[in-house]
Amino acid sequence: MPTSKAIGPKRTALNAVHKAAGGRMVEFAGWEMPIEYAGITQEHLAVRTRAGLFDVSHMGEIEVKGPEALRLLQWVTSNDVSRLQDGQAQYSALMYPQGSAVDDCIVHRFGQNHYLLCVNAANTDKDFAWIAEHNTFGAEVSDVSDEYTQLAVQGPRAAAILARVTAAEISALRYYWFIPATCCGVEGILARTGYTGEDGFEFYFPPGESERVWKELLEAGKPDGLIPAGLGARNTLRLEAGYALYGHELDAETTLLEANLGWIAKLEKGDFLGREVLLRQKQKGTRKKLVGFEMTDRGICRDGFNILVDGKVAGNVTSGTYAPFLKKSVGLGYVPPALAEVGREIQIDIRGKPAPGRIVRLPFYKRAR
Amino acid sequence: MSYPPEFLYTKDHEWIRVDENVGTIGITDYAQKELGDIVYVELPKVGDHVTAKESFGTVESVKAVSEIYSPVDGEVLAANPKVQASPELVNADPHGEAWLIQVHLVDRSDLEGLMTAEEYEAFISQEKAH
Questions:
Q1: Within a domain: residue A264?
Q2: In A142, A162, B115, B126, which residue has its Cα 20 to 30 A from A153's Cα atom?
Q3: What is the DSSP letter of B110?
Q4: Contact between A302 and B62 using a beta-carbon 8 Å cutoff
Q5: Considering only CA atoms, which of A120, A93, A97 is closest in space to residue A107?
């Protein structure tokens, strides 16, 4: 069952550690979370060049088990769950019949009859209720969010750092695969996933020894420059990498095709919620299209600003920031498909003043492999 | 960082230093800390008029935008080119090198409602408690 409604924001098991480390705490998705410690720029650059440690325990986990688990997940999610092998994960979306996402998520397969979904903090209760409502198959669905602390170690040095705290074969662990692993003496699940555009890992484990694991990871990563990183850097990193954020690029009104997520909509896998709309849009086209753009002169684009083409409002910015690694302002937003071509000159209405920008290819940042 | 006693301060976290009828205006150390890493500063041009309690520019960090309010009415005599070229200077030296604009004061009575350093420090300790 979802956690009981407490007064005030929820706290992860590491709340006191963040405060002691000088973390600037903010309320995010009903949780009191660190937005930054040393500063977003420093944390962002640490992840791009060395490594950062994130507490992402606010993320929700929903377990789906039983002989009907696969059928339920094939119906409520857009990606093809039948393609997963044990120990493999896939990026997917929990679907509305309108072709839009209830949430985006990562589906982990433990076995044919056992899956774990990692979902957005703000959506966990909604997701659980949605899956339960559509569970006419009789699968076992449980919200197990409280059973996990989730830490993300992200950056080019992440694998070297992890290797010091686990005997698990992490060098053989491929992107979007996971293994049961003991890290810092605690048993959990180690996945090669992340939301930063860098190599990295996410470790899910029981919250009891969260503080010790956090401190041991930081200690082990010291020689490589590992520092704690907050939600501020998490957001600027994902934006540089061109990843969607629910509530910004994704919502109940936006279909997967509009959000450039056609690659997770496996229309040939059989029927699923929203498939009909997506099929129709694939033939007839969409109303809007997600584009990335950069500012070409002064000014920083922000969420909610209007995108102008030839002086007229053509769309809106869903995420905009100054990108600390690219050292320019970039943003994501929606425009009509006819105006979405790469290279198009646009303007962003910054508090009443149009500032020039240009539609560019996504992602803004791609790591060298 | 300490708050220079020769400055006056606003509730919106600007400071002003007055020499004769020239006021130098910046944002406070508290304000730069609240904003975080500053990446962009937008200032008025020389000759523009600023109005007491009205916005004359913006300071943007990676995560937020903050309007800067003028403590006084006046004509802009200078806009600091250094902070426009290197916005991070506002984090490094908000009370010194990173002043934002200088204005020619029209009416010194604008200064009457402002806080002294001591009053401002009491004010921000209350803000922090919230």
A1: no
A2: A142
A3: G
A4: no
A5: A93
Look-up of token digits 């950069």: A294
Taking an 8 Å cut-off on Cβ atoms, the answer to whether B36 and A298 are in contact is: no
Q: Please give the tally of structural domains in chain A.
A: 3
Residue A105 lies in a domain: yes
Q: In this prediction, what percent of chain A has a pLDDT beyond 70?
A: 98
pLDDT tens per residue across span A11-39:
999 999 999 999 999 999 999 999 999 99
pLDDT of residue B130: 60
User: A240 touching B, CB under 8 A?
Assistant: no
What number is the ipTM of this complex? 0.85
Q: Write down which residue in A125, A144, A163 finishes a domain.
A: A144
How far is it, in rounded angstroms, from Cα A158 to Cα A151? 12
- What's the confidence (pLDDT) of residue A1? 43
- A40 has a chain B CB within 8 A of its CB: yes
Report the distance separating Cα B122 and Cα A301, nearest Å.
35
A324 touches chain B (CB under 8 A): yes
Q: Which residue has the tokens 């205006």?
A: B25
Take residue A10 and report the two structure tokens written for it: 């929820």
Residue identified by tokens 């973390």 is A23
- CATH number for the domain that contains residue A187: 3.30.1360.120
Q: What pLDDT sits at residue B128?
A: 75
The domains of chain B, with CATH numbers, are 8-129 (2.40.50.100)
In chain A, the residue whose alpha carbon lies closest to the alpha carbon of B88 is A41
Contact A232 B60 (CB under 8 A): no
